[in-house]
Structures are given as structure tokens and as C-alpha cells.
Amino acid sequence: MKHCILALLACSILTGSALAADPPSVELHNKQLRLKVYTPDAKAGFYQGTRFDWSGVIGDLEFAGHHLYRPWFNAVDPSVRDFTYTDTGITASANSAMVGPAEEFQKPIGYDTAKAGDTFLKVGVGILRKSDDAAYFFGKHFDLVDGGTWTTRSTANSVTFQQMLGKPGQDYAYLYTKTIRLVGSEAKLTIEHSLKNLGKVPIVTPLYDHNFLTIDGLNVGRAYTILAPYEIKPTRAPDPKFAGVEGHTASYHTDLQGQDRAAFGLQGFSSQVSDYDFQVKNASAHLAVRMQGDRPLSNASVWSIRSVLAVEPFIDVSAQPGEEFRWSYTYTYSTLEAQP
Fold this sequence. Notes:
Layout: E1 25-29, E2 33-38, E3 57-63, E4 66-67, E5 75-76, E6 83-86, E7 89-92, E8 103-105, E9 119-122, E10 126-129, E11 143-146, E12 149-154, E13 158-165, E14 174-182, E15 188-197, E16 203-209, E17 212-213, E18 224-227, E19 243-246, E20 249-252, E21 261-265, E22 277-282, E23 287-293, E24 299-305, E25 308-319, E26 324-335
């Protein structure tokens, strides 16, 4: 019998079983924002996959009466490769069933040189066991050998997660810290990171933020525009049936339906940190989300299906043995004036 993991909704979607308990979380709030942030937990956590960073999972963000980061899927099935469409909605794999500004340290450390049965490192997850000699695929679930020790400290307007993995001098050892902080009474939050490499193996990997945006469950399409501070020159152009790029703006030509998929590049950026500055606007909800980073972009792209729009900025992370690498993001939420 297939096993199901539930993401906020009932496992009954697939098996008819009772509702799952709500995963452990903390709530942050100020005068304008209210966040539900899931905490890492190997047994009861919202996310237990081996793709995304386990910390800082924003399962809901409420602003101006709207909800921005709810699940884009309605069920989870570990046998699914990435995600699939069903008669009842969208089913995600255990590795892809993530929400909100989810980060993935894209390159697994040591995977290419490890033999089947050996271990490798996925930052933000832990030490995993390589099951065979196949090329790495993000959707494949690996056995977790050592997830380290996670600690969580929270206040009314901030939460800090810390993962201690391994011991100094081992091949794989690090101290990873992530803090989500609301900025005063503004509709703004920061996500601050520190990665200290305590081991013997360099930690060098692309890192991207998937930014699963699901404003009020509205279909992705004509209401959305994406703005960049530079002229967008995609190396992978959008399908003109669904979207187009002109100057600094990408826009949708139609609403995505069924199994429609719109994915394209956001290249054209320079090495200036100021180019990590994207805005996503939704004219139907009269909302805008601005995403800024303090490291230069190494890549940027868009992935979208009918239930979610994801602007994905990449940076390069490099922490040599004994070194610390820091980076941060700022998210600003605003309302748009309604058009007459």
C-alpha cells in the first residue's frame, strides 16, 4: 500500500484516511504581516525531503487580507518523481512538496566521487547515502544518515534556526544559521544566513530560492508581471503562447490551465549586487512582492504552472574549510492601486 505524507491537507485525498496533525510551527507577526513558519523535525516536520533546506519554511504569509505562500499542491506521494496531475488536483513528490521562499543548495557535495553505499552532503538537509551510480536527480529521495542537530529560537517577530552537523575536522561538518526577521512595523522581512565550514571538504554550490508564490490560490496568468532592474535577455525564451519578455518586464499572455507550464530565463544581469532585485505584481489581488539579495546573481529563471509562480534567483556559495559565508534576502510586500 502506498504511503502518503500530508501537506496541510488530508491524506484522505489519496487514501481516505483521517486528517494529519498540523506540523510543528511558530508564528511571527507585526502590524502588517502574519507568518506561519514550520520548524525542522525528522518525524513530524512539514518537509522531510532531501532536496530543500529544512529551515525557514514559510507555510503561510498573510498581508492585507491575502495569503501568499500556501501549498501549490494538494497531496504528497513519495512514489511521484517530481509532481503529477490527478483528477483531484496536483500531487507532489516528497522532495518537491515545499512552500514559500524555499532554498536549495543545488550541488550535493561529494556525490560525484562517492560510490554506491557511500555518503555525501546536502547542505540544509544533512549527510545522505548514495544508493546507486546514477547521476544525481533532485527528485530522488536518499536515506538520511545524519541530519545533525537542529535548534529553534523564536520571538514574536523573529525565528532563528541552527543546524550543527558533524564535528570539527571531519570531512563534512558545518554550523548553519538562518534567521527570519520582521522589520519593525513594516510589511517587510529579512532572511539572514551564515554557513561556517568546520570540516575538511570545501562547500561550493549554487544556491537558489524557489520562491513558490501562490497568491490566494489564483491561477497564474495575465494578472502577473515580473520586473527586473536590467533588460531581460533570456537564454531560454518563454513559449509565446503563455508569456513574453520586453525590456525589463516579463508578462503572461494567458491564464495557465490544466497542465500548462511556463518556464524561461531571466538573464541579462550584471555582476552588480543591485541586479538581485525582482518584483512580482498581481493586478487582480493588487499586490506586489519585491525580492532583493545582497550577493551577485549567478543565474535567474522563472518556473510556473497554474497553481504557482516561482521567480528563482541563484547565487554562488563558497565556504572553504575554516571559512564562513554570509548572505541575506529582503522581501517587501505592498499594495497596488486598483485600476478604474
